[in-house]
Amino acid sequence: MDKNTKMNSHSNEYFMDEIDLRLLDVLQTDAGRNNHELAAHCGVSPATSLRRVRRLEALGIIERRVTLLQPERLAQAVGHGLTALVEVSLDRQGATQLDAFEARAVAEPAVQQCYRVSPGPDFVLVLAVRDMPGYLAVAQRLFTDDTNVRNVKAFFSLKRAKFVPAHPLPTPGGPK
Q1: How many angstroms separate the CA atoms of 176 and 172, rounded?
Q2: Is 45 in a helix, a strand, or coil?
Q3: CATH number given to 6-58
Q4: Cβ(91)–Cβ(151) under 8 Å?
Q5: By CB count within 10 A, which of 22, 109, 119, 127 is most buried?
Q6: What pTM was estimated for this model as a whole?
């Protein structure tokens, strides 16, 4: 390990230095950069860049690298698209019931995001479907067929004004 990073073996806590933060910042903006570009941008050698990125991946800090699609352009190319934000309340909120609904929701391909929330509804889901009949099919599978679902409130996106999947990172040298 580098002198400025360390792993606390008791808590799996990972302390990141300025280089780690720069690497993460760049990767959140463009994960498609090759290792040489990443190293040059962060002011480290390619070997250091590769070693640190692999360690961040092994620790699970970097979960995965994906390509983000622009929904409006995708809709122009392949047809309509519909985004729904859905609040779901269950009748019974025991751990078994919450886990069962969550497992069904995350297994559904149309569910892009699933959050267990409090207070208010039990879950908030973000769904991406082709059209309203596609939404109705998902609603039937996830909500209507589940006798524990008490209330569903769906909101349909008219326009995506902002979408930033990047997590805010501490500024180098600032509080962590």
Answers
A1: 9
A2: coil
A3: 1.10.10.10
A4: no
A5: 127
A6: 0.77
